[in-house]
Each structure stands twice: as structure tokens, then as C-alpha cells.
Amino acid sequence: MSANTNSAILHRSLEKEYPAASGGDGVYIRTADGRRIFDGSSGAAVSCLGHGNKEVIEAICSQARALAFAHSSFFTSDPAEELARFVMKRSNGAFSKVVWLGSGSEAVESALKIARQYHVFRGEPERVNFVGRLHSYHGNTLGALAAGNNPGRRKIYEPILSPAFHHVGRCFYDADGKGLSEEEYEDQRISEYEAEFLRLGPRTVAAVILEPVVGATLGSVLATKNYLSRLSELCRRHGILTIFDEVMCGMGRVGTYHAWQSLGNVPPDLQTVGKGLGAGYQPLSAVLVGKTVCDTFLGHSKGAQAFLSGHTFQGHSIACASALAVQKIIARDGLVANCQKMGEVLHTFLTTSLPSKFFENGGSLRGLGLFRTVDFGTLGDVCGGPLGKEVSQKAFDLGAAVYLCSPTVDAILICPPYIMTKVETKELAGTFVEAFKQVLA
Ligand code: PMP
């Protein structure tokens, strides 16, 4: 079935053909027309256990048999409670409570609202501004879109996006830092925040929001060594909350349970997670709430309604039971460590197999764990145009789906399931390199 001929769906692209995905097994997706596609980006950093996991399927069926849905204004449920405790335990005490939601965008919206409410509860209603970063992405609903700064996605909606969101820093993108030491580069970025806080008035700022590892917009760009700790310290001085959006980079993908644990180990006040949390078996996202915010909410509510933002399907029993099975498997099978190991295998394979033309023209590899990016640098300039779109399409034709980053960079994100073996990692990387060579030829 294609988008333009038989489909009843208004697809993202009206030009592209979308084969129907009809089955899946491990790292592969089968299409209705008989193809087998390597899920080389876990969809978009979602399917971390791959497809057809029998334990997860059993957890879904068992919960469906017991009870599918009970509204959260009347009930909690065992899987929702147990999953919350499980995630917090794995976070080593960084968070005190969890808010369940359905999508990453909903989690971001809720984190923004929790931050706003926190300041109102503390008697600082003048804190109405949020500071995000250029070239970031936090989701597609209006608040999340306003928080992010992905020009391609925002432009048409700009007149209806809230002016309370401001953006600083061209991001901790290593190419920007050429000629500067890492420390000088960080100095610049942190002073941009400081200048923005002063421009707005520090007591008008509610929170900063950022992705510790930038995902879809730039392709696995890591915060530099002291960036998160220095920013957190600056925010603390001004009473501003930190929100880390780990919807894409979190839940083990970079080789630690949370990405910030690899990047200075300073937890945020609020964190969003999604995608890998439920691994695509059910939609589920969350806001993880740190102690400072939690204590303020608990101290304030005194029996009254604490958080004013309910969603009908939050804490859905089947979604929580499913994600609980996913998270237990990840912990039991040491899959976070596997991300680290297989990430290195992937990196080494690409480093030794990509043609020299790639590196000679500013091509680079970056990322951590199984969150890796191939950036074509200036190679597109000598090849008559950006390469990412063509290479990702060619890879798909050869049997591997990999994720094209936004046009801000000419780059492809490779973020396969955590369950990858060495053989599968080399197979995926081999298909990618072959696609690249065929496009260059
Ligand atoms: N935040 C980040 C960092 C994301 O990458 C995404 C999705 N790519 C979102 C939020 C939004 O998640 P969703 O598409 O599930 O709403």
C-alpha cells in the first residue's frame, strides 16, 4: 500500500511509498509484501527490545484479561505503582514520584506545567518564562513545539506558539566549538544562559528545558563534560528549575539508565521519558519528579488536588504492565551494558568500513551506546547535495531502516534495539556502508 494511491491515512509525506508493516521478530520487521527490514533505528529510538517479545506479549494479555482500564481519578493499579517504584529504584534516589502519560509530547507539556505550578505554590507567580535551546526538539503539541526549536517543524505554527518560550545557545554541537577548548566552549554556552536570564529577569524564569543528548534535530550530540552540572548550578542560584528531556536518549540507550548519568551525573528537577520506556509495545511516557518539586507539591496540597493536569489514559494498566515487563527484562538481561558494548562494535565497524572520502570531507561519527550518528559533513557539497535522504532511502531499499535527522544537519541516526548481537550489529552497519557506497558510486 502506498500513501498516494490506496492509503486512507494522511501520511507525513505525500510523495513517499509506505510499505505496510505486518509482523516482526527480534530486530526485524516484516512487510505485507514479503520483505524483511532491519529495524536499525528502533523506529525512532523506541523498540529497544525489538519485536515479538513473548514475555511482554504475555504481560499485556494477562493484564488485559484482569483489567484493561480504570480511570485515574478513581483508582491506581498494581502495575502503575510497581513500575513507578521500579523506575525510581533504578534511578538511585534521584526522583520521588512519577506522573504517567501517553506520549513524549504529553510528558513535556506536563513537566512544563508542573514547573509553573511549583513556582505558583511557592508564591512566585511571576515566573512565567521558559528557556530552551536552539536546534532542540521536545514534541509536536503546541507547548512542546514552542519549547523546542526545530525550525522546520515550528515555522507554520509560529503565530500560535506561546511567547513565553525563549531559546539560547546554538547547542553544544562540537563543530561549533572549532578552535575553542571544551572549557572555553562551555564558558560561552553557559554565559549565553546567564545573559538570557538577566535579559528576561531571573525571577521571571520558571525552568530551562534541554535534551542532554540532542536526538532527532542534530543526531546524538552530547552535552560537554561539565555543561549540565554548570547549568544546573546556575539555575539553582536563580531558583530556576531544570527539565531534562530524555524521551529519546533515555532509559538505557546511551549505556546508562539515564543519559545525564553519563554526562556529569547531576539529576534534573524534572525529567521526561517515553519511547524506550514501553519499547513500543504500548504507548507510555512519564515525568519523573525530583524531591524539591515533590516536597513543594506535597506540602502545598493538604488534601486538595495536587497536579491540575489529568489525562484520560494516564497510567493505563496494560501500558504499565507491558512497560514493567520491558523494564524488568532490560535489567535482568543486562541490556543497558549491552548498548554500551554494541555501540562500540558499531562505531569500530563504521570507522574501519566507511570509505576514506567520508572522513576526508568532514564526515564524522558521534554518539554514545546505541545512539550513534553518521554525519556527512561537507561531503554533500562535493556530491551535488545533501546525502542523508538518499542514503537512508537506499539503506531501506537494501533492507535496513535508519533515521534521517532534521535538515539542520546532513546526518543519519543509527539507534537499533538494545538486544543487538555482534553479528546483527555488523549486519546493520554493513548494510548502511553498502548503501552509502552505492549512493557515492
Ligand atoms: N522529546 C524528544 C527529545 C523527542 O525526541 C520526542 C520525539 N521524537 C518527543 C519529545 C516527543 O515524543 P512523542 O513523539 O512521543 O510525542
UniProtKB/TrEMBL annotation:
<protein>
    <submittedName>
        <fullName>Pyridoxal phosphate-dependent transferase</fullName>
    </submittedName>
</protein>
<keyword id="KW-0808">Transferase</keyword>
